[in-house]
Amino acid sequence: MLKKTKVADETATGQAGIKKKSKVPGVMITQFMEELPEGKTTPDFTRKPIGLTIQEGKFAYFKAIVVGDPTPTVTWSRANGEIIFHPDVCQQKYDPASNEHTLEFPKVAPEDADTYKCFATNEYGRAVCTVILNVIEVGFSKTKELQKTQGEDATEFRKRLKTRNPDGTREEKTMDANEKVWEILLSAEKKDYEQICIEYGITDFRGMLKKLTEMKKEREEDIAQFISHIRTLKPVEVKDDDCATIELDMDLLDSGSKIFLYKDGVMVPFSKEDGEGMKHNLKQVGKKYVFTIKNLSKNDAGLYSVDVEGVNVFSTDFKVPEVDFAVKIQEVKAEEREDALFQCVLTAPMNEIKWYGKSALLTNNEKHEIIVSEDKLIHKLIVRDCLPLDGGIYAAVAGIKSCNAWLVIEVEKDPAKKAKKAARKTTIAGAGNDEELLRIAKEQQERYQKEMEEKAQLAKKAQEEKELADAAARAKQKAEAEAKAAAKAAAKAAAKAKRAAAGKDGAVKKTKKKVAGAGEGAAANGASGATGGVVGVGSGSAAGGAAGATGGGGAAGSLVGAAGGGAGGAAGVGGRDGSGAAGGTGDIEGGDEEGGSEVESDEDFFEDSDEDIEGEGVGGKGKEGVKEGEGEEGGEKGEGGEKGGERRKRVRAGPLVPDTVIDPGVHFHAGLSDCKAIIGEAAELECKVSSEECVGIWYKDGAEIQSSESLTISKEGCFHRLKIHKVTEENAGKYKFEADGRKTEAEIAVEDPPRFDKEELEAFKAPVTVKKGHKATYKLSYIGREPIKVQWYLEGEELSSEGNINIETSDGTSRLLLMKLQRKDSGEIKIKLKNVFGTIEAVSQLNVLDKPGPPMGPLEIVEASSSVIDFKWRPPKDSGGCKIQNYILERQQVGRNTWKKVGPIGPEAKYRDSDVDHGRKYCYRIRVETEIGTSEMMETEDIQAGTKAYPAAPSAPKVASAFKDCINLTWSPPADTGGTSILGYNLEKRKKGSNLWGQVNPPNEIIKGKGFAVKDVVEGMEYEFRVSAINGSGAGEFSTPSEFVFARDPKKPPGKVLDLKVTDSTYTNLSLSWNKPKDIKGEEDEAKGYFVEIRPAENTDWDRCNSNAITMTTYTVKGMKSMAMYWVRVIATNDGGEGVPQELDNYILAMPPPVRPRFTDTKIQSFMIVRAGNSARFTINFEASPWPEVTWLKDGVPVSKKVTISNAEGTSQLLIPSAQRSDTGIYTIIVKNIVGQETFSIEIRVTDEPKPPGPVDLDENVPGTVTISWTASPDEKRDDRLHYMVTKRDSVKRSWNTIADRIFNNKFTACNIMPGREYQFRVYAKNDMGSSKPSESPKWLIPAKKEKFTVKMPESKACDLQCPPKFLVPLKMHTAPQGYECYMSCAVKGDPTPRVTWLRNNISLNTNTNYFISNTCGVCSMLILRVGTKDTGEYKIVAENALGRAESSTKLAVRE
């Protein structure tokens, strides 16, 4: 059984940390929860990494094997710094076959030496083990020297960077590439190091990291002088509004520090106001600084640096690609739950562009899919399953170019369909123009390739011009070198000949060489010589050299072959018998040829000579003897004979590479591109070269490949293609095409995503229709790399095998069985397959048939006359999934019990019954009939045939417009028409003040419409109107009268309201008041009402607060968002319309009137004592408006992260979870807003029970007393409130009695010590938490002297004991802590007993209740219960009797 110990481990919040030991030594496991679920385990190591000591440059690795359920995640860390994962530095790998996790160092370096930790973590726990890597440094390292050189360059750069002008600005000069790369690396993320090094040609990755670490430390020291904290460094980011931003968060030590912006080392001016004038703008929001570059162009590219007071804090490289939109994205209208497609075409290839949706950056996920074509020109964004919330503006950003368009979601307007969740649609809105986009993309690609070819031609031409200039310079140098070489060679030849004649050739080195090769050459200066190449054969004449003599014929081969002509090699041959031979070029690997011979040659090593290689040319026979050659430069005469001669090294007199312009040959117009291939499908690689005659070779993983049954290699003009007919996993790998020394590579990644069988998929998509209670089966086969996750959905909800649902998946087939189906189960059936390579879906429809629902009311009576009843109704809400065949009707005459079957009437929801009797009432039952069955019935209300039923009153007429000679009215028909249709209306009018109504329309001419123009009016009179409806029974009741209206021309709208102002405000309400607008005749008429409108600052639309005009000139706006910004306006209105709005001059914040912060607690404690280890909690309430900023300080500095601060509305709480003595201090809360600030301080003292004092010593200074002294408690220095208490016990009274308390020194004198008694003392240390264990003194005993007892009777004399007052023990000086007790005492004698008076600053204290005064047997004492600053001063005690007066004084000091 393993022991478990609870510890405070770094686990997630709310988790318990339980540490336990592993069976593997050196592994510690932390369990995150008390009890683990069944079958789940914490991580553990079955094999832990082993420490390693290895030589520098070798391959080093650590291996670990972990177990746990769920499978743990393995991570590595090191003690000093972070691990840099890079192919050349360090790699983390996992082998699924052996379950081994490895950390590999390809070439271990000294800086890799460190202590490494391996972590295995899952949701239930974590296991960790430690391993050490030691690296042995050896020898001289070129890498180190290179690092040193680069380090010196970087150091020089930092020195130059530090050299600033007196005002903190940089020296005005453009930065070079070396300065740029280090400034970019200082601010770049680690994942970008490799790309930056490749771009700027840095090959020593380790050296760069080492120096970069040093530079970062140095920069951090510089930054710390001006910035306390810097974080959230965001590089240049192009937005969708034609601007780019640089963001960083930093806390400046001095808010007045100067901030500079540089571009490529040159200062850029910027403004701090967001205006149109400046291109660059700085916006500060709190601690966030945002630089904005507006109106982007190509000239804005460069390295941007932000400096603070001359110290570089951040740099970012802004690159502007040459790209634009050939086709911009267009507006897309999509139906709800349909996919939407945005697509665009670029003018140049880009791997990716940025997509924004409603100003938010979009990424690839289930909602949004980003697609890029193979040529990188067509970019698409698919918005899946569009909902109303997805509507808005979408934008595409490529480089500094952007375009945007609207996505409009068309929502279902039918309320019946709107209530039910719409089915998922498989169509894509915005698609359909793919062919046009492909055509445009092809044109753009051809144009782009043409531009690239033109640029390549220009570059080639510039290179040729440069090479010609270099060739001319080399020719000039060659001529000078030849002259020097000839003179030097002549001098050396003469010296050699002299030594050879003297026989002093003992310093030569003999080598045996195999002569092979063929060539010919002629000596121009008396010696035969020729130069030979390592590869290839050439011939030419020597331009001058010293003839060397060798034992056999042949010419020495040179290191570099010269095609066309040699440059004067010092290699001649002479025959053994004196015959000479012309030498040829030799081949290193050549075999023995005719005339070849193995010779022994002597070599001398001279300065400025090229080394010979093992290869000599073979020459034919020459003339007898060796003749002295003649030449322009004059060479040394060769000598032949039995002994042979000496051969010198050839002196090169010309360049190694001929001065010719080499044709660049074939180059690629379009290289290979990586592609992803699906197993079983075809894959093709294609490249384009510049020449149609070019023949190339294809390679796979380094091995040449040819056409076969599985793949075809073809060539069509400049295009070379490799096509794999049916991809398998063996086809994955790197493919290379090589032609004329040029090559291009691409990788084919073989994927096996889930796929459906096409025939089965088509059958699956067909809708399935079943009857209620029956079952439905869906089955679909698939292929793909296992494991494949199969999910079934019904109407978007995932299904699982339970109840009436059964899901079976096995051997590439999945089957869904739905049993006992109900009508509500109808909807979309979807199967979703997912593996590591992708996801695929298939959709079908399920329709469950059932009986229809009953018809729906209300019943609409078209006609109810004496001979016919005609009525309509609404179809059923659910027809059961079938078409309605008939409506079945039954009729009952009211008063009878029988129902008469009218019969099926067809699918139309209406019926006309002509078999009725005048005046009788009828009731009908209606059922729906489909092929599945008949619905429940709907019973109608009673309908009477042929009785007079008058219509109800219409609505009150409304005045549409009024003029001096005409008033236009409108009204609405009555809700109750009396069972028949409305034939027309009668209209009446009445003047104001009159009781008589007059009909407007003639009696025999009813008004057919729902409006009428009344022209029989008198200008200036005021009228009201009423209307009645007429049906077949006659005219009904009149409506309520309309409002009074004047017969006059329309009024003018009113003007602006006056003196609009805010009278009160809260976080949710705003009170306004204003005055009526002026009445200007002919221009602005009197206002009849007012509308109040508000607009949030971030919106452009105004919202009307009151739907009906108010007549009062005050209004309260409610429901505002707290601290939100609003614009407010008031509009006056009258019959003439609405006037011009009057806005407030400035925006309004939804907040109460400003209130200076103040604390609301009536009693706030200013001192708190907390036991060490316990939590300290202090809560304080306040009020302030607007919301204040709350800051807590400890001893004047911000509190540490250990302290938890909780702020809520009107309150703040400080919590120290586990207080330590170091947390003792004065905590100050600062509540600050725009009005002012308020502070309060509380002293929190964290202490614990004190440790006992040291050894106690006893000493007798005065007879009858004992002085007790002791060593101070160890806590005395840490606790200024610590004091001591002394207790005593003697041999007579065995109990312990306190004789002194609140002693702040380490000494006390005990009185009344009697001889013959044994005393013992204890000393306690005390503080606010209590007292310590006692420290006991040794026993104290003064033996009593026994003398002979003699009784002497004294003579009785009169004794006078009277005496004036005298202080035996005066008052002592006192210093007491604030808030503690202070005890003063003294001893006085006198007879008669003196009267004692206490004074402070000469004011009597005897009657002051704040002081406790006592006088017992001459011992006078005074106790101050709680010392405060008011108690500071001089204290005096006066003793008086009839014989005299005595005084004693002291001073009391109070310390905080």
Describe this structure in words.
It is a single chain. This protein has 1456 residues and is mostly beta strands. The protein has 7 helices and 108 strands. The strands form 26 sheets. Strands 1, 2, 3, 5, 7, 10 and 11 form a 7-stranded mixed sheet that branches. Helix 1 packs parallel to helix 4 and helix 2 (177-187) runs antiparallel to helix 3. The longest helix has 69 residues, at 434-502. The radius of gyration is 54 Å and the shape is extended. The chain starts with a strand and ends with a strand. The model is unreliable at 1-16 and 504-662 (pLDDT under 50).
List keywords for this structure.
mainly beta, single chain, 6-stranded antiparallel sheet, 1456 residues, 7 helices
Globally, the shape reads extended
Which range best describes the helical content: under 10%, 10-25%, 25-40%, 40-55%, 55-70% or over 70%? under 10%
Structural class given helices, strands, pairing? mainly beta
Unreliable stretches covering 5 or more consecutive residues = 1-16, 504-662
Mind sketching the topology for me?
Blueprint: E1 5-7, E2 17-21, E3 27-31, E4 41-47, E5 52-55, E6 60-69, E7 73-78, E8 91-95, E9 100-105, E10 114-122, E11 125-136, H1 142-162, H2 177-187, H3 193-200, H4 205-223, E12 227-238, E13 243-252, E14 259-263, E15 266-267, E16 280-285, E17 288-294, E18 302-308, E19 311-318, E20 325-327, E21 332-335, E22 339-346, E23 354-357, E24 360-361, E25 368-372, E26 378-383, E27 392-398, E28 401-410, H5 415-418, E29 428-429, H6 434-502, E30 509-513, E31 515-518, E32 521-522, E33 540-541, E34 555-556, E35 573-574, E36 580-581, E37 599-603, E38 616-618, E39 668-670, E40 675-678, E41 683-689, E42 697-700, E43 703-705, E44 711-716, E45 719-724, E46 733-739, E47 742-751, E48 755-756, H7 758-765, E49 768-771, E50 776-783, E51 789-794, E52 797-798, E53 805-810, E54 813-818, E55 827-835, E56 838-849, E57 856-864, E58 869-874, E59 886-893, E60 900-904, E61 910-913, E62 921-929, E63 938-939, E64 943-944, E65 958-962, E66 967-970, E67 984-991, E68 998-999, E69 1011-1014, E70 1022-1031, E71 1034-1038, E72 1045-1046, E73 1058-1065, ...
Parallel strand pairs: 5-11, 21-28, 22-29, 31-38, 32-33, 40-47, 49-56, 83-90, 101-108
Antiparallel strand pairs: 1-2, 2-3, 3-11, 4-6, 6-9, 7-10, 8-9, 10-11, 12-13, 13-17, 14-15, 14-18, 16-17, 18-19, 20-22, 22-26, 23-24, 23-27, 25-26, 27-28, 30-37, 34-38, 35-36, 39-41, 41-45, 42-43, 42-46, 44-45, 46-47, 48-50, 50-54, 51-52, 51-55, 53-54, 55-56, 57-58, 58-61, 59-60, 59-62, 62-63, ...
